[in-house]
Automatic annotation (TrEMBL), chain A:
GO terms for molecular function: sodium:proton antiporter activity. The keyword Transmembrane helix applies. Residues 110-129 have a biased composition (Basic and acidic residues). Keywords: Membrane, Transmembrane, Transmembrane helix. Residues 101-129 are annotated as: Disordered. InterPro entries: PhaG_MnhG_YufB. This is Multisubunit potassium/proton antiporter, PhaG subunit. The lineage of its organism: Bacteria, Pseudomonadati, Pseudomonadota, Gammaproteobacteria, Oceanospirillales.
TrEMBL record, chain B:
GO terms for cellular component: plasma membrane. It is a multi-pass membrane protein. Keywords: Cell membrane, Membrane, Transmembrane, Transmembrane helix. The keyword Transmembrane helix applies. The lineage of its organism: Bacteria, Pseudomonadati, Pseudomonadota, Gammaproteobacteria, Oceanospirillales. Belongs to the CPA3 antiporters (TC 2.A.63) subunit E family. This is Multisubunit potassium/proton antiporter, PhaE subunit. The chain crosses the membrane at residues 12-39.
Length: 129, 161
């Protein structure tokens, strides 16, 4: 019985660490959305930092409910897999829309001419340089 | 058989995911079986002719490595978000693709979006080139070699193309 109680105590610390870590990453992701210089750099913050934040939170939930109810809770794992599958697609759609509408880029963006090529959808073989 | 059950593995997956999400009961099992039978019939026309996975084991190691890379990339991006903007060197990369199969290319684009500070944004019309926005671009050649070695090469092996 004591070993089981110990498990519950340790899992509390573990879950707390996961929740705080996840919340921190989501905070950074949302802050990045506000502070990064242009549309394209802002795409990075929610696709990456928030994905990990969400993943950590879900893992915390998985451990918590598995220990509390003493049965394996797999929902959260499935949800995080769906998240990993969908985040790049929405980022791709937004990036594609931005590039074709020629949203302005932050000053000093390197290889900006590549973005122009992408907007015209030219391949490497029909370069004009 | 092919018409009634076009993608047996997908059907098994659907039943498993449905039961995992809803909890097991006989009612849910019946619903899962019905959905697992109907959804593949509806979606089969979209995936017909796609390159099949030739090496499922390599696919597993690829997924695990991707998971690890996602964590590393996340920490890296979080660090760059916290640092002031003046240290940021955003840039574009036209990544030359050496495969054309739509499904592996989609996986590559998604992997690139989830990992090293890059988001794939557009393909060229002839699909020879993937345009990538990089949050912090140091060296184009190095990044290109990294993506090829870590993602494109394994994907080519997995799908045998």
């Amino acid at each position: 019985m004591t070993s089981l109680n110990n498990l519950a105590v340790y899992s509390d610390y573990f879950v707390a660490a996961l929740l705080i870590g996840g919340a921190l990453f989501m905070l950074v992701g949302s802050w990045g959305l506000a502070k990064l210089p242009d549309f394209y750099t802002r795409l990075h913050a929610p696709t990456k930092a928030s994905t990990l934040g969400m993943g950590a939170t879900l893992l915390g939930s998985l451990v918590w409910f598995s220990v509390q109810e003493e049965s394996l809770h797999i929902h959260e794992l499935v949800i995080s897999i769906f998240l990993f599958l969908t985040a790049p697609v929405s980022a791709y759609m937004m990036g594609k829309a931005a590039i074709h509408r020629r949203r302005p880029m932050a000053e000093g963006t390197r290889n900006a001419e590549e973005a122009e090529r992408a907007a015209e959808r030219k391949g490497i073989n029909d370069r004009d340089d | 058989m092919k018409r009634l059950l076009p993608m047996p593995w997908h059907s098994v997956m659907l039943i498993a995911v449905w039961l995992l999400l809803n909890g097991f009961s006989y009612g849910q099992l019946v619903l899962a079986v019905i959905l697992a039978w109907l959804i593949p019939i509806l979606t089969y026309p979209y995936v017909r002719g796609h390159a099949p996975v030739k090496k499922p084991l390599a696919m597993m190691t690829y997924s695990l490595r991707l998971l690890y890379d996602i964590v590393v990339a996340n920490v890296d991006v979080a660090r760059r978000v916290v640092l002031p903007n003046r240290y940021l060197k955003p840039g574009w990369l036209a990544y030359p693709l050496s495969m054309t199969e739509p499904f592996p290319v989609t996986l590559l684009a998604s992997s690139v979006s989830l990992t090293p500070g890059t988001v794939s944004v557009e393909f060229s019309e002839d699909r020879t080139c993937l345009y990538i926005h990089v949050l912090h671009l140091e060296d184009e050649k190095e990044l290109q070699a990294f993506i090829f070695k870590r993602y494109e090469q394994p994907l080519k092996e997995i799908f045998g193309c």
